[in-house]
Amino acid sequence: MSAARTAERPSKRARNAAVGLTPSAPGAGKRSRVPDDGRLGRVGWLARPSLRHRPTAFLAGALTVFLSTAVVGPFAAMIETALHSGGEDRLALLIMGGVVGGWGLVIVLFSLASAVGITVRQRTEEVVLLRTIGAAGSQVRALVRGETLVMAAVAAALGAVPAWFGARALLDALRSGGLVSGDVRFRGGGLALLATVVAIVLVARLAAAVAVARASRAPVREARAAQALATPLPRWRRLVAAALVLYGVGFGVVTMTVTGRSDEPYDAMMTAGNACLLVSIGLAVVAPRLLQRFAVVLHRRFGRGAASELALSNAARRSHLLSATLAPVIVLAGSSIGTLMLVDVDVRSMAAAGGADRVTNLLNVVVVVMISLFAAIMVINAWVAVVADRRAELRRLWLVGAAPSTVRRSVVVEGLVTGVLGAGLGIAAAATTVVPFSWARGEGLVPDGGLWLVPALAAAAVAVAVLSATAAARRVRFQSA
Q1: CA distances in angstroms from 113 to 31, 62, 237, 294, 470, listed in the order given
Q2: pTM metric for this prediction
Q3: Locations of Basic and acidic residues compositional bias (predicted)?
Q4: Distance from C-alpha of 157 to C-alpha of 268, rounded to nearest angstrom
Q5: Mean pLDDT, residues 409-435
Q6: In this structure, is residue 443 part of a structural domain?
């Protein structure tokens, strides 16, 4: 063995410590071995310093789990309450809990998986280092899954508390609005909240397992290279994205050809309303590839100035990291524009027929408010986590000569890029709802009114992204060591 190769190889003591070999008691003359059966093993002692050195990233993941439980829990409680009710009250509660909560659950679980994936992918360097010194891939995966399980369980349990109060407030609002009778009693107890907590924890654990799989199974050199450069999207992600987009477009086609001609006017709303959500999520699944191509085009035309050069080159080379901030912007813009435009067309077209259905419009507004608030929080959360993990990188840019203001402006430009791209993709997703529904209600391909909602909501999505990036960049400190 050459001297250079020997120098690069970890010591035998380090390799043994990583895989679970520890010296036995003095005088025993031999060592005991912890079986490598995929358990956490002796490498588990790294969990505490990992949590201590990445508090912001782990708090961002915990906040996502907490909010996910708080958002989904009230709708699960409505389903449990509906099981103890009857007649029209039961139907109204099932619609609120099943339909509205179901779409909210889809958005929440997607955002949760994305946020947990950010936290885990930021640890690729740590995973590679553990494998370099001899840790088994199964041990690394067990370490990450165990940390995520503990974090998610604690955060979800805490989120069940506001979910319970939110469920009671939601039922009070339904009673006061006349959507259910006043004698409906709240029955959403521990069963619904327990099911919500279990579902949220399982999704978080699954997302962690998927995120750490590549770095723990691929060769060390390949895993290290994948951390620095964007890698091709897995085939399964492209297939999922294509299926969601085609399914959403299919809903639009069905609206124009089938449900739009139905005698029941709200059949068209049921199919059209699903389209923008499905397409938004589908586009968000392939956000890394979309961001990479968009950044390359912008870099060729607008890559002038230090801040723009840094931001666009980083977005093109490391789109897999910044895409976590793009995905919630797409969902925010697509769902809010599509659903609010749908409600506007419905109110205007049904005015001549005795007025729009108050219950249906209220449900749509609840969907928009819930998804928009959650998506906005996810945008802020994603930027906090991403910039917190890049503090060392941003500090190195300052050490090689970049002014602190230039470094911070580059982060803001990244926020502007993701905001503009996300708003544009959101408008495209919203069109799959607005155009078919407008056609079905006799207003043509372009609605007769409410067009101001499109630029207003798109600008709001861009503003959320830019302000989030600005706030996260201001937290970076450049003091000398």
Answers
A1: 41, 12, 13, 24, 25
A2: 0.74
A3: 1-11
A4: 39
A5: 93
A6: yes
